[in-house]
Design a protein that fits this description.
The complex is a heterotrimer. Chain B is 71% helix and 0% strand. Chain B has 15 helices and no strands. Chain C folds into 2 domains: 104 residues, no CATH class; 240 residues, no CATH class. Chain C has 16 helices and 5 strands. Classes of the chains: A alpha/beta, B mainly alpha, C mainly alpha.
């Protein structure tokens, strides 16, 4: 089945997400769609699957025009979308998730789970997916959950599979397995659209590449002849340097010393399993690992958002294992949280209120029980200018800023203080290249000024380019340590460690 | 590096307050006005549906107006009714801002009234300058403690405060009727549940007795005004208020910022309860001078409407409380003049909140007042 | 990759898990109960407690159950102490829940024995009253389940019950029992529909919408009651559905009168709970409804109409609540009084939470609340030392205990309380 998008345009208020896009998808082929965050890839795919309707343009399947009125229409036409953020009900089983909406039934609308299980097993065998139909989604690792998404799409006889940033949560080895599945689907005659912003992957898996920038297709190419550099330039619109400017490595005394830390999850499972490591002044320690291996719990225990049940955390020579969040903050610990909307900022508060979210009680901003708002206003305007937060006024609600500017605001708030240790969790997730570069340079600046920096990221490239030392977390333990200053890092070895394979 | 002059002019620009947008004006002014108008219209329809003739409907609304604003007595009644509504409404608004649905204002009013009346009829011989504030304080403390039960349960166990406060409400009525039967509390010589009278040294004095000794407006109005100013200052100028608002908007971000979520929940509920308790104390010390079953007369529930109509802002609550006070005073006149039951007022109040809390609904009914949102 | 569990740790690791803490708390509670039972109920009891098991007109007569009060209570205290000790020594989660449930049951039995010592009362009668008292709570709880399973918090149940009661009385007076019942169900459904509209289409905050509907219904019913019913009494004089005895089953001793000699509303409650369970867990519509409650965006991407699903289920919830409300008038006194639902709608919500958002769970929980209610009524008659007002508070305090999770924490549907906005 071939699908063509002709002249597709979609606007959200003043923003034009897709601008006169022309795209052809052919059966038996992997089309790589490259674009940075905010370029319009997701919008386009949501239009293809029927979730959005285009303002202009048309969709043709095998030459015939089709109109999608809802998400069900895309699936019915044979276009299946595998979302970046999984659309799986955690408390249902694999089989229940796969059949949802197209359930086999018996008398009196009886839900026929036995048939469903058999059908899931059949698809498993056909494409080599190996997923247990009766497992609960919340018990499955992320890599397997993704296969459930693929199962969903195949169950509905999709001929076109759209994969939206599928490798974001996989280790390098899992990526290889995943590519194997993609190739076998392609060889079976399906059309695959592979959406990503990762350059080396798109070169590896695609048969053809289209580049999306600012809502328009700005480049097409043959992966066999293109280079990463060319692609990057097409994606961003200007030459991109992949190196981050760093000062010389001059580590000082130990700032943070974590010993034998144990942290539990809500259900009493172990999230952090006797972890020990240290961070020195002037050093960047990157923590690599697939999300869900305990990194978040580790950071929460270090910052005080969660209590460890065993082990100690020493900061600047003092035992802070049971200190409050505020005490650690006062001592100079800064934290850029991984989900800015959830914890880092309050969307309905103004920018100036957000700028003092965790410093409002300090002497410079308060006198007695009251807050000195004029001081707050002046300071936040200063911060916004310093950190290039693009806004017409500090009175604006933070929720109205773009993602990149929101993150810059959070980073400004954290870095503008007297800091000794900066902890950045997924600091550039979902941001455009310009903001990413800016935040990276500020983090390096802190490190050059003598702060210790911890970066937690699931983007291995980010960790590798920024860190002086790389720790890999797997299953709650630190399973490997790599010294970046001793020579170039071995990506393969790191990848193996992320998957739990230790040398 | 940018030179300092252009830098400072940039920061100057950022400090300019953005002009209030059209959307905000619509939300704060147009929607409430429409809400009240539509509610009154539907109220008339309800009367029609219960076989009230048009002439009587007209008389009812006229009585409503006269009873609320038409004479010095009317204004005195409006203000007297408004005082506890504003106080309890402030309590609820404070709770809403901290993300807590304190439906239990009614119970806190009852408990506050009980405490105030006990202090009020005890301690004979105490000068009023000590006795009166003491009684008011007792009311506030009792309300605050009662509410903090729900706050503590919410903080420690996650029990939803809507259900716990409603249960506390229902328990408070039973507590009141039991206490009114106790020997040391019941008025001597009476077998019906009435408490002893509040001593004159603890009463909130009437203010307009020079004009007419029957005017009921009492010194509680100063308590009310002080409360409005205090709550405004608390919410918008203090650290505690900042913490309440942050916790209400995004509890995760509040925790990340080092705020103690549990403490905030308990204190916010306690403060809200203290204000409601103060409302109860007001009723007992300024209007009734004793406690009887049902002295709270639904003020706690009306206060929910007041807080919602006032958009949880102290000044808004003040105006909303005055409006509802007017409706109540006028409603009583309406019942006397036109024979229409005062329960109609509750219907009107409920309708007002529906429209306030669902601006989309108002826009759907009255598209011409509003700018069209940007198309999808 | 599944995370390591705490059992992987070395046995001497002194890690304080949540389960360990909970086991300790239960242990303390059980020992506290043991002391209470021994000191107050055991020591303070004299004579025998006589529980009547048969009623005068039963075909088979069973002798009364006579229990020596003090001995029973001392034994009960001993069992409680044993369970409490066990918690400290080997508190695992399964045993913890069973122990605390058994513990409370024993303590309640001990209380009953103490209160009845030297007197007698009809146990069967009390059990029968329990089932009756449980009906509005179970139906309210079921309405809550149907609504919250699609992630719509339903504070309006109290209002819907009241609307059902009112309509049942009014229409019952005009159209007879069945006409009144049908009208009540329809009116309940109407308010369910209104709640859905406010919450789904107009995106009102769910709790405020629920509170408003309840306020509105209270206002309207009180208004009409005082304005119209006082003058036109014939409008408030509905027939009452009498009990129907099921042949054979109704004659079984003890169980017969309790379960098989009740009126339409009791049977209806049991039937509705069964039907709802089948619907939610054994049909595809139930699967879709539950998916809307857990992960609406996922359901949306699969072509399930989230808005329509919520409308349908919340309207159904309203219909169930309408039926439950009709019990107050058509199943009980035949006459509407202002605010006659007395907070039972909220207790129904507590039953829903206690029952872990499952129809049968809500029914079981409702029976427990019903037991508390009929217990306090019987005790008021039997004249115990505790003032009647405090006994009347029992159901409310029980509700607080339940929602505070003292009897087991559970998880509501994941999207509960959040509006769904389609992009």
């Amino acid at each position: 089945m071939d699908v063509e998008l002709r002249g597709i345009t979609k606007r959200f208020g003043p923003v034009t997400a897709n601008d006169n896009v022309n795209l052809t998808i052919r059966a038996g082929e992997v089309l790589g769609l490259l674009g940075e965050n905010g370029a319009g890839k997701s919008t386009m795919m949501n239009i293809l699957s029927g979730l959005y309707s285009p303002d202009e343009g048309e969709i043709l399947i095998d030459g015939k025009k089709v109109d999608f009125e809802g998400p069900g229409d895309g699936i019915e036409a044979g276009i299946g979308m595998v979302h970046q953020h999984f659309m799986l009900v955690p408390v249902f089983t694999v089989a229940e998730n796969v059949i949802l909406g197209v359930e086999p039934t018996g008398k009196f609308d009886y839900l026929d789970l036995a048939t469903a299980r058999k059908q899931v097993r059949d698809i498993n065998e056909k494409y080599g997916l190996q997923v247990d139909p009766d497992a609960l989604i919340e018990d499955l690792p992320v890599g397997i959950q993704q296969r459930v998404e693929i199962l969903k799409v195949l169950f509905r006889s999709a001929e076109v599979l759209i994969l939206d940033e599928p490798t974001a949560v996989l280790t390098p080895q899992e990526v290889e397995d995943f590519f194997g599945i993609v190739k076998s689907l392609r060889d079976a005659g399906k059309a695959i659209v592979f959406i990503t912003h990762k350059l080396h992957e798109i070169l590896e898996i695609s048969d053809r590449i289209n580049v999306l920038r600012g809502g328009r297709i700005t480049g097409e190419g043959d992966p066999k002849t293109m280079t990463e550099k060319e692609l990057a330039e097409m994606m961003v619109g200007r030459p991109v340097s992949f190196d981050v400017e760093k000062g010389p490595f001059k580590p000082g005394e130990t700032l943070l010393d974590v010993k034998d830390l144990v942290v539990l999850r809500e259900n009493d499972d172990i999230a952090v399993d006797h972890v020990s490591f240290h961070v020195r002044s002037g050093e960047v320690v990157g923590i690599a690992g697939v999300q869900g291996n305990g990194q978040s719990a580790l950071i929460e225990a270090i910052t005080g958002l969660q209590q460890a049940v065993d082990g100690t955390v020493d900061f600047l020579g003092k035992d802070i294992t049971h200190a409050s969040v505020r005490e650690r903050h006062r001592m100079g610990m800064a934290h850029v949280p991984e989900d800015r909307h959830k914890s880092g900022m309050i969307s309905n508060f103004t920018i100036y209120e957000n700028m003092v979210l965790n410093t409002y009680y300090e002497d410079r901003f308060s006198s007695g029980p009251a807050i000195k708002w004029p001081e707050v206003l002046k300071t936040s305007a200063q911060y916004a200018v310093d950190f290039d937060v693009r806004t017409p006024s500090v009175y604006l609600k933070a929720g109205n800023l773009s993602g990149g500017n929101q993150q810059k605001m959070v980073v400004a708030r954290e870095l503008e203080r007297e800091t000794k240790l900066v902890i950045a969790s997924q600091p550039t997730r979902g941001l455009d290249v310009g903001s990413i570069e800016y935040i990276h340079s500020r983090l390096m600046h802190s490190r050059d000024e003598g702060d210790g920096v911890i970066i937690v990221s699931s983007e291995l490239d980010e960790i590798m380019s920024l860190s002086d030392r790389v720790l890999v977390m797997y299953d709650g333990k630190i399973v490997a340590e790599f010294d970046a200053t001793a020579g170039p890092l071995d990506k393969n070895a790191i990848g193996l460690a992320m998957a739990g394979v230790t040398a | 590096m940018t030179d300092t002059t252009s830098q400072s002019s940039l920061t100057e620009k950022l400090l300019q307050r953005a002009a209030p947008g059209r959307a905000e004006f619509e939300d704060l002014v147009i929607v409430p006005i429409f809400a009240v108008i539509v509610a009154l219209i539907v109220g008339a329809l309800v009367m029609l549906a219960t076989a009230v003739d048009i002439e009587t409907i007209g008389r009812s609304y006229l009585a409503l107006l006269q009873g609320s604003l038409g004479s010095v007595n009317a204004i005195s009644e409006t203000l007297t009714s408004a005082i506890p509504l504003v106080l309890a409404g402030l309590g609820l608004a404070l709770g809403f801002r901290a993300g807590l649905f304190n439906i239990g204002a009614e119970g806190q009013i009852v408990v506050g009234g009980i405490a105030a009346v006990i202090v009020g009829f005890s301690f004979p011989g105490l000068p009023w300058i000590i006795h009166l504030p003491l009684a008011l304080l007792a009311g506030a403390l009792a309300g605050g403690l009662y509410a903090s039960i729900a706050g503590y349960l919410r903080a420690a166990t996650g029990a939803h405060e809507v259900i716990t406060t409603i249960m506390l409400n229902l328990s408070s009525y039973l507590l009141l009727s039991w206490m009114l039967g106790l020997e040391w509390m019941q008025r001597p010589g009476r077998s019906d549940p009435v408490s002893k009278s509040v001593l004159p040294s603890a009463e909130l004095p009437r203010l307009l007795t020079d004009i007419d000794p029957n005017l009921r407006l009492h010194a509680g109005i100063f308590v009310m005004i002080a409360a409005v100013i205090l709550v405004h200052w608390l919410l918008f100028k203090t650290k505690t208020g900042f913490e309440y608002r942050a916790s209400g908007e995004n509890p995760d971000a509040a925790r990340y910022a080092g705020m103690h979520a549990s403490a905030i929940i308990v204190f916010a509920m306690a403060t809200a309860g203290a204000l409601a308790g103060l409302a109860g104390a007001n009723q007992v010390l300024g209007v009734l001078e004793r406690a009887t079953p049902g002295f709270s007369s639904g003020i706690g529930f009306d206060a929910i409407s007041v807080a919602l109509l006032g958009r949880s802002h102290p000044v808004g609550v003040l105006f909303a409380g005055l409006l509802f006070g007017a409706l109540e005073a006028g409603g009583r006149q309406m019942q006397v003049d036109a024979g229409v039951s005062i329960d109609l007022i509750s219907i009107i109040q409920a309708l007002i909140i529906v429209f306030i809390a669902a601006p989309l609904l108002v826009r759907a009914i009255f598209p011409w007042g509003f700018k069209k949102p940007a198309g999808r | 990759m599944t995370a390591a569990s705490t059992t992987d740790l070395a046995p001497d690791a002194k890690i304080d898990t949540h389960k360990a803490r909970q086991a300790r708390i239960y242990g303390i509670v059980l020992i506290g109960l043991a002391i209470l039972v021994a000191a107050v109920f055991g020591y303070g009891s004299e004579g025998n407690a006589t529980f009547g098991l048969s009623r005068p007109r039963d075909p088979w007569v069973i002798p009364n159950l006579v229990i020596p009060a003090a001995s029973f209570n001392y034994i009960a205290a001993a069992v409680l102490a044993f369970l409490g000790m066990r918690q400290f020594m080997r508190g695992g989660s399964r045993w913890s829940t069973v122990s605390i449930a058994v513990g409370f049951a024993l303590a309640t039995a001990a209380f009953l024995v103490w209160a009845t010592a030297g007197k007698s009362f009809s146990l069967t009668g009390m059990l029968s009253a329990t089932v009756v008292a449980a009906v509005p709570i179970a139906l309210g709880g079921l309405a809550g389940v149907l609504s919250e399973r699609v992630a719509v918090v339903n504070i309006a149940i109290e209002g819907m019950l009241l609307a059902g009661a009112f309509t049942g009385a009014l229409m019952g007076s005009l159209l007879g029992g069945w006409g009144g019942l049908l009208s009540a169900v329809l009116v309940g459904g109407m308010f369910g529909f209104i709640l859905a509209a406010l919450v789904v289409t107009y995106r009102m905050d769910q709790i405020i919408a629920g509170v408003v509907i309840t306020l509105f219904v209270t206002g309207v019913t009180s208004y009409v009651s005082s304005q119209v019913f006082s003058e036109y009494r014939f409008l408030n004089n509905a027939p009452v559905f009498r009990a129907w005895k099921i042949p054979f089953l109704g004659d079984i001793p003890v169980i017969g009168p309790v379960l098989f000699n009740q009126n339409l509303f009791v049977y209806g409650a049991f039937i509705l709970v069964s039907v709802a369970t089948y619907y939610l867990f054994y049909t595809r519509y139930g699967l879709r409804a539950r998916s809307v409650g857990e992960h609406p965006r996922a359901a949306d991407t699969l072509g399930i109409n989230v808005y329509r699903t919520r409308y349908i289920n919340v309207t159904l919830a309203g219909m169930v609540a309408g039926f439950g409300g009709a019990w107050f008038t058509l199943g009980s006194v035949g006459r509407f009084d202002e605010n006659m639902t007395g907070g039972l709608g909220y207790i129904g919500l507590a039953a829903m939470i206690f029952g872990r958002w499952h129809p049968f769970g809500a029914l079981m929980a409702a029976l427990i609340f019903g037991f508390a209610d009929s217990l306090q009524q019987k005790l008021a008659i039997v004249r115990t030392p505790i003032p009647s007002e405090f006994l009347a508070m029992a159901p409310y305090l029980a509700t607080i205990v339940v929602v505070a999770g003292f009897v087991g924490r559970s998880r509501p549907p994941a999207a509960d309380g959040k509006p769904y906005v389609k992009e």
